[in-house]
Amino acid sequence: MQTHGVATCVGIAWAVLLAVPIVSCSPASLSDNSTRTPAKGIDVGKLARFLSPTAKILFPGSTDFTAYTARWSNLEPPTPSIVVVAGIEKDVSKTVKFAFDYNIPILAYNGHHGTHTTLGKMDYGIEIYLPQLNTITIAKDMTSVTVGGGVNVKTLIDTLWEAGKQAVTGWCECVSFLGPALGGGHGWLQGHHGLISDQFLSMNVVLANGDLKTIDAHSDMWWGMRGAGHNLGIVTSVTTKIYDIVSPNWAIETIIFSGDKLKAVYEAANKDLLQNGTQSSDIHNWSYWQNDASLDPNNPVIIMFVVQEGVDVVDPRYTTPFHDIGPLMITPQSGTYKDLAAWTGIAKESPPCQDFGLNNPRFPIYLNEYNTTAMQKAWDIYAPAISGENNPYSLSIFMWEDYATAGVRARGVKSTAFAFRQDLILAAPLIIYAPNKARDLAVEQLGNKLRELVQEGTGRGSELHAYVNYAYGTEGPEAWYGYEPWRQNRLRTLKKKYDPKGKFSFYGPIA
Ligand SMILES: Cc1cc2nc3c(=O)[nH]c(=O)nc-3n(C[C@H](O)[C@H](O)[C@H](O)COP(=O)(O)OP(=O)(O)OC[C@H]3O[C@@H](n4cnc5c(N)ncnc54)[C@H](O)[C@@H]3O)c2cc1C
């Protein structure tokens, strides 16, 4: 029962639970959202016939379409024409094959926290919504778990916790398990076990031509999937290692300083936490530069978290050096691993996990130590740029993440496509502002300037190490995947073999 171009939906509702009335399948009603390119040329009726009864096709104008196309950051967001909500893994492969055959752009949506500005190049086509692929199956021998391609971090942590288990996952409760992992993946347990993707044992992945393959360490794709995976396929499920919960209890001290203490604070962090790369695997240190008018009405403050595993109070040998600097406030807390996200402001209910409709670009850079001279220069630009009454960037956060890294560095530097194993700190200004085209360029310049100042303190010249999952989008493949020619060649070879048409190139494209 097809018409030209887009099909009517009559006769296919048995196969697909359509979330809008039949009439909204017509091209005219698809164009009701003026910022979207209508799905002309996408034969929805034909696509629907390939899908399972648990799949849905959503169109602009429906509540679900609006909900499932929302982004965490609205700077250069993708604007798909229709959404396929995958009900089973095969729905992904059928949709990708359909898009391959008819040369239609596709993009997997998972936690929707990806921020690359290149995502905006997806201005037409099919979004493949993964969160309904949400199965979690712990193996009988309790050493691994098979996780659906759309499982969210918090769901996985909670499910494993109930079983007395843990996995290396992202720390933030609102992102997907796989989105971070495919770019390497940082999390609280990486100091013991390595990156999220270092734990993988096998995965089901849909290739650009729609083939659904199970791969493991024997596949040539395996290396690339763990660091540059967004480029090579859509992972519909993954089997990953799990561990006994050795230390359920964790403690934190949140220590807040005024900006004039910057040098003293980060010199202490270098000496007493980082310790020239010998930081304990039980210790993590994060800090945010952000406004808190109750503490300093004119400037941002430095919010320092010292987090320790396996204790109820953070060992004073890590915190006393900071107390001695004269903080504005000290807040100790204790609990379990599951409290960490709330303590550090990234629980599902925390502001960073909400879709406020703001623009949230980051400008990431990996470091090996805190260079306080470079940081002071960055502060001197950042503080006035985000402070003051009615400042449009007042919600911004300059993030400095010093996770325990021993487990990451213990693996061979060439072992996966994640290139920056030896780096110790992940920093990034996150400039938050309401969408306003007139501000975009100034924000990009500010973010790049701040990053350049920090870069000057690395001694790496112009060699930028940028976490692909925090990237602004213009850094380029060497900054995301490493400068060694062999890395770039290996990635290009994989891309050519597995995605020659560049179907998976809206996020951190290899070439
Ligand atoms: C609030 C917040 C917290 C964060 N916390 C962490 C963290 O704890 N650890 C960390 O390392 N990073 C973290 N990040 C960065 C994070 O890795 C990236 O934002 C990542 O893109 C999020 O993935 P997503 O699934 O949420 O987003 P999405 O925008 O849905 O996906 C991002 C990209 O990955 C692709 N993708 C997603 N799932 C799949 C899949 N199954 N197969 C193939 N491609 C897929 C999408 O197509 C898209 O291109 C955080 C970011 C934010 C904003």
TrEMBL record:
Domain of life: Eukaryota
UniProt entry tagged with the keyword Transferase: no
Keyword Oxidoreductase in annotation: yes
Listed cofactors: FAD
FAD-binding PCMH-type domain span: 75-245
Keywords of the record: FAD, Flavoprotein, Oxidoreductase, Signal
Span of the signal peptide: 1-25
MF annotations from Gene Ontology: FAD binding; oxidoreductase activity
Pfam families (UniProt xref): BBE, FAD_binding_4
Listed InterPro entries: BBE, FAD-bd_PCMH, FAD-bd_PCMH-like_sf, FAD-bd_PCMH_sub2, FAD-linked_Oxidoreductase, Oxid_FAD_bind_N
Annotated PANTHER family: BINDING OXIDOREDUCTASE, PUTATIVE (AFU_ORTHOLOGUE AFUA_1G17690)-RELATED, FAD-BINDING PCMH-TYPE DOMAIN-CONTAINING PROTEIN-RELATED
Protein family according to the UniProt entry: Belongs to the oxygen-dependent FAD-linked oxidoreductase family.
Protein name: FAD-binding domain-containing protein
Organism of derivation: Amniculicola lignicola CBS 123094
Phylogenetic classification of the source organism: Eukaryota, Fungi, Dikarya, Ascomycota, Pezizomycotina
